Amino acid sequence: AGIETTVVPGEFVEGVNRMDITLTSSNHSKNVFLNSQFEKKDNNGKVLGTTKVEKPIEVLMEGADLDTYKVINTPCSLDINIKEDFAYLFVGHWLPGDIGEDRKNVGLLVKAFFETFKNKSKKPALILKTSIVGASHMDRDEVLKRINSIKQTVNSTDLPNIYLLHGDLTDTEMNELYNHSKVKAMVSLTKGEGFGRPLLEFSLTKKPILATNWSGHVDFLNSEFTSLINGELKNVDDSAVVKDMILKESQWFTPNSGEIGHYLKDMFKNYKKYAELGKRQAHFSKTNFSWGKM
User: Fold this and answer.
1) Residue 208 to residue 219: CA distance in whole angstroms
2) CB neighbours (10 Å) of residue 104?
3) CA distances from 37 to 32, 237, 279 (A)
């Protein structure tokens, strides 16, 4: 998958140069490797040369299994008991970082969802298929604690419901979740993806997607058929830095807050328009990003 930011560590580049060929899963990852160059110095600080990619590096996208991820009409075997008829779905880990700084941007999504639909007479739901590390009770409780902490920052007692789906699911169960009659769209405010597999898998259900307009997933999310949120590149926050991987001097994507609210409200209000685009994205994904194509 490579990297989700704008710079890979120098050790990554040196590793690539020890290989005959390196395969990344997106054009984003390939370009970041090619654009990452470093001065190599001796112990006295003398510049010995520039470290950059010298060996072949190519893109091999992560195709979806069309036998598993597809439209199904059978009832979902998962016990998902929500009262709303319209739910947005997020799938991904809740990684380190303050609100608006964690890589998958789960904190910002929770905050934006509360703020967008607070005090509204009709509200959608948000299903978070997430965890921090694994499927333990402690992990689940920490996720619930984070959601509640963000909830306390919203100036309203009339808020939309957020449901947590926690624990491991099989590929078949994930496809059932994607096809659930109350799951109407997928949303991801991710700051960076090496590829973004759940977005590709979900697209094959013919339902609409709302995602950020940067990094690996824009290889397969066609801007004509998907709602892509614009924004800007900003430095990785200290709270999200990962030693020897997510570097402080690198950047990733910050979505425009106004566009987040606009698309969340408009997709809920004018769903038929977005659903038609979802069908076209499904055809695009199936045609160009299958295992066969890979």
Assistant:
1) 17
2) 22
3) 10, 22, 41
Both structure tokens of 232:
């800007």
Q: Which residues contact 157 (CB under 8 A, 6 or more apart)?
A: none
pLDDT at 43 over 90: no
Cβ partners under 8 Å of residue 215, min gap 6: 4, 26, 28, 190, 192, 193, 194, 196, 252, 253
Q: Give the Cα separation of 129 and 166 in Å (integer).
A: 6
- Dump pLDDT digits (tens) for 251-260: 999 999 999 9
Q: How many CB atoms lie within 10 A of CB 255?
A: 26
Residue 52 structure tokens: 């950059």
pTM as predicted: 0.95
Instruction: Tell me if 55 sits within 8 A of 15, measured CB to CB.
Output: no
pLDDT of 44 higher than 90? no
